[in-house]
Structure formats: C-alpha cells, structure tokens
Amino acid sequence: MAENVKDIEDLRQRKKSVGVVELQGPNGQARVVNLEELTDDDADLAAKFGYKPVFKREFGYLSTFSFAVSISGLFSTVATTFSYPLYAGGASSAVAGVASSEYGAASLLLAAVSMGSDFTYVPTIGTTIGVMAALTVLTGFVNSLSTYWMEKMTKTYVIFHIAILVTCSIALLAKCENRHNAKYVFTDVDATSGWTPVGFSWLFGFLSVSWTMTDYDATAHIAEEIAEPELKAPWAISLAMLFTYVGGFLFNIVLCFVMGDMASILKSPMAQPVAQIFYNVLGKSGGIFYTICAFFIIKFVTFTAMQALARTVFAFSRDRLIPFSSVWVQINPLTQTPIYAVWICVFWAIAINLIGLGSYAAIAGVFATTAIALDWSYCIPIVCKMVFGQFEPGPWHMGTLSWWVNAYAVLWTLFASIIFILPTVRPVSGDTMNYAIAFLGAILIFSAIFWYIGGRRYYTGPVVEAEINDNTFRDNNGSGSSGEVSQAPEEK
Q1: Is it the case that residue 235 has pLDDT exceeding 60?
Q2: 66 has a pLDDT exceeding 90
Q3: Per-residue DSSP letters for 321-382?
Q4: DSSP 8-state class, residue 146
Q5: What's the Cα-to-Cα distance from 248 to each of 89, 95, 242, 276, rounded to whole Å?
Q6: Tell me, what's the pLDDT at 1?
Q7: Any idea of the CA torsion for 65, 68, 70, 76, to the nearest 10 degrees?
Q8: Phi, psi (5° rounding) for residue 338?
Q9: Does 484 score more than 60 pLDDT?
Q10: Are 184 and 90 a contacting pair, CB within 8 Å?
Q11: Cα–Cα distance for residue pair 165/172, rounded to 1 Å
C-alpha cells in the first residue's frame, strides 16, 4: 500500500507541474487557472477526470469517519426496525439480523410525545406525515449551509452516537429486573408472521440489518469535499461498517435480554417497540430521554443522507444525465454548495412520503424499493469488475481478499433483495402486501422508456469541464515549457 500511496503522490506532483487548465462554467464562461493554484486533490480532479473543482475540501479523517457512521444511524435505525425480527422469529432472529428516513424520525419524535402524555396521545399516519414534511424542510435548511458548517456538525456526531449507545446499553442492563436468559435470547423462535416453515419466517429478521447497512457508500458521494478522498473515504467506510456490525450485534443482544414480553411491546400504542422497552425498563424520564436521543441520531442520518443525495444529483446534472441539469448544477456563491439540488431532493422526499396518507403498505413498499435499488447500484460495478477484469486498484484496497469480498457482497445482495420483495405477513391482504416488486417493475419500465425516448439523445457520457493538453517536457532540473490550454467542454 505504501508504494501505491507514493505512486499517486508522484502522479499528483507531475500533474501540478503541467501549466494551466481551462475551467468551463455551466453557462459557457471559461476561466484559465494555473494548476499550481489548485490543491493536490482538485488538480487531480481536473487533470484525471476533467471535472471543474467547485467544492471546498473541509472533511478530514474524524469528520469523514463520523459521516460514514452517521449514514447507518445504528442506534436509531435499530429502534425503528426492531419489530421486523420480533414478528419474524423472536429474540434469536433479532440477534441474527440487525433505513433510516425522515418518516422514522417523525415516528420517534411522536413516540416521545406519546410517552410524555402517558399514552393519552396516539400518533396517526396523517400527523406522522405532517411532522415528516416539517423535518424534511429542516434538513433542507441545514444542507443549505456551507461545507464548513456541515463538517463541523458532522464531526461531533460519532462521539455523541457512541456515548448514547454505550450508556443506554449499560442503563438497560443495570435497571432491568427480569432479564431473559441466554438460552431465550439466542435460541427462542416465536414467529407470528404466518410464514411456514418457521425457519423461513426467521430470515425476515435480516431486514433490520439490511436497513441499517444500506447507503454505506454515501461517503463516496462527498469525495470532492474530502481531503485525500482516495484514502480517507474507503478507510472511513470500512471502519464505520465494522463499528456498525459489532455495535449493532451487541445492542440487539442487549435489547433481547431486557425486552420483557415480546407480545406486549409489539402492541405498544407508540408503534415503536424499542421506545416501549426504554419506557418499561428506564421509566418515563429515561424512556423519553433515550427516545429523543434516537430522534437526534436519526436526524443526523437525514442530514448526511441529504448531503450525499444532493451531491449525487449535482454529479448527474454535471454530466447532463437528468432533466433541467443546468439548474441543479448551479453552485450558490455564498455557501459554495448546490442549493437547488438540495431543495429538489427535499421536494421529492416529501412528495414520496405523501403516499403514506393513502396506504402505509404502499409507502413501506417504497422504502423497501429504495434499499433494493441502492444495493443493486453497488453490485453492478462489482459484477463488471469480476466479469471483465478491467479494474485499476486505488491506493487503498484489500489485495487478494478483494475477489472474495466482492463475491460475498453480490451473494448477500441477492439474498437481501429476495427478502425485501416478499410480504412479511401471511395470509397476504391489501394492507399487508409488499408492493416493492410492483414499484421496481414500474421504475425499470419508466427508466427504459425515458432512455429510449430522450435520454440517449443528450447523454453520451461524462462531460469534460476541465481539460489539459500536456505538451510540457521537464528535465531533472525542473525546466520546461508550460502546457497549452485546450477547448472545453467536450463530451467523452
């Protein structure tokens, strides 16, 4: 790995010595910049990929790691998805399988309100949707800030998350008077889903871990805001996933030891089994405190998820991949962030959640579809790498283990996709149907029609915004002529 790092540093130094680059703006305006004026990472972005550097690289090791951890929202995601394994197979199913969204944030906040009213207030779907919309707007305002402030907020998250996870686990174990024994936690199977055989029902417990481990690539979406992203981004993702695996497994074990009667917490008026566990074990004050903490954590998830989503919309727009690209690619001169891309994401997040007003089963199908689509998007390049072999490792890679990890990733995604499209309860009715398969089919059909009618006419590949014609020759003394500026943009 040390040799790879040295090679990339040598490449950067070579690129920064080749003179000037022409940067093309969205309205055709051109600006000539000396490569020596750019940072190493920005020079690499312009020279190697042909993209104009527009973001400030504020994220370091801690904030990048915190961002990667926040996207899973371990504490809060387990809290909002714990019912899946309990319905599916009991305690042992929860241990075997450990996502997050504005809808979950609204549910947790209203659960705390219900707890505070001694359960005289019961949240409704309409109220949850309304609170969701308000929280999504708040997320939009936060993501309208500059990268500087986003980095400062993100840096503190991981410390808060770990502190809450550890203290909550200790408090639950210390305060619970009637803990289950290890045999119950690791071997009990009590399926109420209606699926047979029970072993198949037990597999639905993996839905919780699938939700928690979804969107772990989000750190790559902010690569242009990270210093040395080729090292820090994969390092942060790997370490964050290790933390999520280990921490999530242990936290689920704690919950199963202290949850008491499974049937009663599943009938909680808050519709949040973990919040009910907090209340039962820690009392009203402790229950409200940790439910609110779970809400804050899931809001951090939505902040980082929205940042990653907006940067994805920006990247697609930069390559003219989606309609009205010239709008979403605009960078606000004050914050140096794509404000329009942020707010179109806010709009669609609210619009999609409005489906819940008509049918909770339908909105649950939408959530399942997003998890499947994300996992498929990860596996497509992995499969291409394994089949075609045209892959150049970066400075951070897994060496000989890479192929085996790739194979496992594809097999896991195939398994998780099957679980995500099946209804979790039988017999199946209109209220218990999993509509994910219908949404997937509709999306694929619409995408194919959109591509053949218009998409292929204006998208022909990545657009070059910055291009260098390297006619520079340098001897060992560093003398030589400067490079020439080439015309941009062109389409590769």
Answers
A1: yes
A2: no
A3: -STTHHHHT---TTT-S-HHHHHHHHHHHHHHHTHHHH-HHHHHHHHHHHHHHHHHHHHHHH
A4: -
A5: 18, 9, 10, 19
A6: 46
A7: -120
A8: -80, 85
A9: no
A10: no
A11: 11
Tell me the torsion sign for CA atoms 145, 101, 163, 62: negative
- Tell me the C-alpha distance between 244 and 175, whole Å: 25
In DSSP terms, which residues pair with 138 in a beta bridge? none
* Residue 386, H or E segment: helix 360-388
pLDDT in tens, 435-456: 888 888 888 898 888 888 877 7
As a residue count, the chain comes to: 492
In DSSP terms, 24 is beta-bridged to 30
Q: How many CB atoms lie within 10 A of CB 373?
A: 16
Assigned token pair, 311: 């940067």
Q: Tell me how crowded residue 259 is: count the other CB atoms within 10 A of its CB.
A: 26
Q: Encode 247-272 in three state secondary structure.
A: HHHHHHHHHHHHCCCHHHHHCCCCCC
CA distance 467 to 458: 21
Sign of the dihedral defined by the CA atoms of residues 331, 334, 336, 338, in that order: negative
3-state DSSP assignment of residue 19: coil
Q: Which two tokens stand for residue 93?
A: 């199913």
Cis-peptide, bond into residue 427, ω within 30° of zero: yes
**270: Cβ contacts below 8 Å, ≥ 6 apart:** 110, 111, 114, 115, 119, 122, 123, 276
Band of the pLDDT at 486, cuts 50, 70, 90? very low
362, 355 in Cβ contact below 8 A? yes
CA distance 368 to 358: 17
Indicate whether this model's pTM tops 0.90.
no
- How far is residue 34's CA from residue 199's CA, in Å, rounded to a whole number? 64
pLDDT tens column, 94-148: 333 333 457 778 888 899 999 998 888 888 888 888 898 899 999 999 888 887 7
> 3-state DSSP call for residue 2?
helix
H or E stretch covering 30: strand 30-34
Place of tokens 């229950």: 287
